[in-house]
Amino acid sequence: METAIAVRDLRKSFKGHLSIGRHPVLRGVNLTVPRGVIYGFLGPNGAGKTTTLKILTGLLFPDGGSVSLLGRPLGDPEARARLGFLPEAPYFYDYLTGQELLTFLGSLFGLHRRTLEERSRTLLSAVGLEGKGGLQLRKYSKGMLQRIGLAQALLNDPELVILDEPMSGLDPVGRREIRDLILDLKAQGKTVFFSSHILADAEAICDAVAILMAGNVVREGPLDVLLGSEVRFWDVTLRAPEGFSPPQEAAVLARQGSQVLLRVEREDALQVLLDGARAQGASIRAVAPQKFSLEDLFLSEIPKEEAP
Amino acid sequence: MSRRTLTGLFSLQVWAIAKNTFRESVRSRVFYILLAFAVSLLVFSYVLGFLAAGVIRKMVLDVGLSTISYFSALTAIFVGIGLVYQEVERKTIYNILSKPVSRTRFILGRYLGLLLVLLVNLAAMVMVLSAVLFFVEGFTPRILAAAACIYLELMVLTAVAVFFSSVASPVVSALCTAAFYVIGHTSSALPELLLPAVESPLARKGILALYHLLPDLNLLSINHLVAHDIPVAPGFYPKAVAYALLLVGLLLVASALSFERRDLV
After folding, report:
1. Most buried residue, A125, A147, B29, B66, by CB count within 10 Å?
2. pTM for this one?
């Protein structure tokens, strides 16, 4: 498969306090992002996600390592012309209207006026800002700014879209809309590379992820490979009569009135539990197989002393 | 999608950034406050002219051209010192430099945008001064030449502000640009004051070398000559243009070089 982003041994450090020494932020990051996928770049705050994204977009210069974007070296204007970028908590010129912002930023790609007007209209509508293009950005809400940010990232109809925390600060409806937009971009054949610490969103839409911890990629790969398809345990909810006693293999997680929540870790134990429950006159309300989640994977990578 | 070739983008990108810089300034209240204050002072020069009975025209010209010079310089410094710095601080630059825009084009666009603001500013003040001069029947087209020379000085001053703005905070930039302005207007006094008092040929050469190293903005000004109806020396204008362009060129190259490899944290 062709590669949209290839990062090898990327290193970056910043000056320490009072310019004494250097503080390493990226310690040899390796990433391979195939074309046409939604790729989540995950990690706790301070892991180096934004630093990596800023290097990819030419805002920071790496200390070492190599980066290739759409098959071209870092800083290549041809690659930049095929790239869309939404910075974290984007700030725009608040004296401009949404339409003026898109016209200004679109002209930096050399888009002709007519194309630009058409494209701006389409994008405003696509991000849910139809009819708001004439409003000054200082009157936009945080969610609206995020949307106009996404619209400006798509002005050049990019092949690769890099989004820094696109769901951050949005309400559930806004998050859902951005997720749908990202899925739309994938359906159009674009590669979406986004950073996030909202794992549920990433798990819902990503084809592949990388987990960055303290400047190192600790896990990378397709989500189904990383999480596996095996069931880790089953949660069973019963309505049990008084005096109900579960088998030894089942752990009681909660009890509320006649309602009991139990967990078993093996399939044969599940069968024993269900048979026993029926035999004791309990009714089975729910059996929920639980797979390994992205959150489980993420937490398993956090060093013990930092884990919640 | 309809798109121009990358090599043909240069002027378009610079112009887009310049236009946005212009829009930013003219939508800022500070711009109008400074302009209103300058216009008030120009009108006030008419009153001053009456106080100095018999030399109304000279007084209006003198005070008027000085007011234009100082307020234009103030606007150049005030707006120029934040020209690059604020873009980085407010992170608005991320949306520009993540596109196929080089940092040199960004600097150039910001610089030209401010020059456009200063041109409009200057034109407005010159119109007010012309109106006052018409009123005292003392209009001279030479104020246009004086205004052109003020603009040359503004080109230099803006380039200084842009340079400092790309490497330092607004406070430091303001101090350094103001220092440049003061040195630029006093450096010509250095040889005038010191040379008569020094006899050693080596020391004299040292003083002259120091003078040539320092900027001399008086080489660009004809305000005094216009106010006193003194003709301008032959060859003044080409020399002034060349000197201003040399300084602007050096400062913009220095700005671009210092900004080119800077991390935008």
Report:
1. A147
2. 0.86
